[in-house]
Amino acid sequence: MSTPYQDRPIPAPLKNPENREYFEAAGNGRLLVKHCPDCGKSHHYPRSFCPFCHSPRVEWREASGRGTLYTYTVTRRAGPTPYALAYVTLEEGPTMLTNIVDCDLDSLSVGQAVKVVFKASEDGTAVPMFTPVLS
Ligand SMILES: [Zn+2]
Question: pTM score > 0.70 for this model?
Answer without folding.
Answer: yes
